[in-house]
Amino acid sequence: MTHDDLEDLRYAQSLLENPGLAIRISNAIGAPLEKGLAMLPHGAQEIINKATQKALETALDFAVSTLDEQPQQATNWLHKTIAGVTGAAGGAFGLPALAIELPISTSIILRSIADIARSEGENIKLPETRLACLEVFALGSSSSNQDDAAESAYFAVRAALAKTLSNATQYLASSGVAQKTAPPLVQLIAQITARFGIPVTQKAIAQAVPVAGAAGGALVNTLFIDHFQNMSRGHFIVRRLERTYGSDLVKSVYMKLI
What we know:
Layout (H helix, E strand, L loop, with lengths): L2 H15 L3 H9 L3 H5 L6 H22 L10 H18 L4 H22 L7 H9 L17 H23 L7 H26 L4 H33 L1 H11 L1
């Protein structure tokens, strides 16, 4: 592996293994997220879960439909700006607005993820790449204590999703149409929802804090998209290097960097 590629992998590893979204949000609102948890109304988790699933279901096709296939520099700032505007609306109206705001924010974030994927040499029209973009929403969070004992949180998530992703990729490749009720996609969405729901809950808690409001909502959403842009950059750097050196070598070097 060349020196430049090794440095790229080192950078990717630093992003993927140290996300820190909860800490960044807590610092932004000036209070621990645990305090905001008590401010969520009864039934809030059900609202969050439904909004999360709908967001993932509606975002996939939209995300790559307005991007061409030519590699170019990702426009992270543009997506952050748009996400900030939608976050301001969510912050102003609180949890009830989540069901409307989250699918919009998620579509913007997923489009940014696809933009980053393209900048790392991915063909975003391929089913495998589309699903790799969706996979990013499962990164940077932990859905069980088992992850703490894993050799790498990043590779643990990829391993957990590998079979489901393979089935979903085969389905898309053969059908050419993303029918959201197809079992392979339903299973994939369910797995990703379980993990994506964690940062969504953190976001909802932050926006429930009275000091947040519209301005705070914009800031929280900016941190939210920045988190997934970082996960995306790390993910697609690893995938780029895997295309050059093979997955086994890249994982071996990655593990030595931890």
